[in-house]
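re: ur question from yesterday

yeah so i grabbed the chain u mentioned. its 375 aa long if i counted rite. heres the sequnce exactly as i have it in my notes:
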Amino acid sequence: MATVPSFPTAEPEGHRAELGRTERLADLKQTGLMDTVPEEVYDRAVRLARQITGAPVGLLSLVNDQKQFFKAQSGLDEAGVEERETPLSHSFCQYVVSSRTSLAVVDATVHPLLAGNGAVADMGVVAYLGVPVHGPGGEVLGSFCAIDSEAHEWSQEQLKALEDIAGIVESEIRLHQALAERQLLVEELNHRVKNLFTVVSGMVRLSHSNGEDASELEARLQALAKAHNLLAPIIEAGKPVGDRISLRDLLTTLLTPYGAQHITALDGPEVVLGPRASTSLSLALHELATNAAKYGALVAAEGRLSVRWGVEGDALNILWEETGRATTEQGKPEGFGTRLISMAIEGQLDGTLHTDLRPEGMTRRITLPRQRLAE
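ran it thru and got these structure tokens back, copy pasting raw so excuse formatting
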């Protein structure tokens, strides 16, 4: 009998649903690790696992709803397996993911659930010990595991060793994502400087065509500067991230530079944002406004923008609606702005963003969990 938690004898209820759960897959996608080249930091971890457990194979396996991908492996090629991924039909790690706990089996060839798994016949997996690997959002991404081609018992010491190494791997994943986000912010600084010249040039032209004096143009430029200052705290690691701000004030600050004649509505209940939430949301809303000023409703004189929001249960819903101009460029899925908005809304605030492009304009629907807004 194994001394660590054993596999269930049948596929657990809700197993497939857990593998395909949206929040888990989003956390996995956010790491950017699926289907990527080997990295020494993870390879070193699986080599260490082999040395400590004495197992011939060590793996860091990431599992989505279709397959498992070996981000790192040691000993697998020696076992005659060359591919770095398998379908779920050949995965033990999927059960570690769906159960969210460590699992072990002494002899898979006689186990009711595992004996028919393709990993037994095609990969020679007999004994298995796996522990969960969590992403930055707390979801189980996959398994850090040791595998043997012969039956044997796993000890509590081996289990504890794998859990400790998995903890180091989790720290590396968090660091990897933090560095990726920091790089994206560096790109954002460059991106914003370029956009700033475009926006200011447009302001000058608009001010001149409307016969405005220098003081009115100066007021708009000051409002634009205030909007940009809202994003400064996120760049300064380890420093205060600013005061709380209402969603209405945030939108007013961000949209004032583009002219009141374009804004038909800023309507919704009082919603107060914490310093971190306001920084992330201002990043996304600023990008939406910039896109609207370059491609959408804020370009043409007839263009109009309305922003309405409401609270429903545990969610804040924001409706960003542009009319009066056909939009094309800002709907492209792979642009830098799209990545930035996704990072802020989905990555930092655990929200969702849906875009509906129409001949006469565009609608964006943002949904944010209320508990994240207070941060």
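noticed a couple things. Residues 156-209 form the longest helix (54 residues). also The CA atoms of residues 287 and 370 lie 22 Å apart.
anyway ttyl
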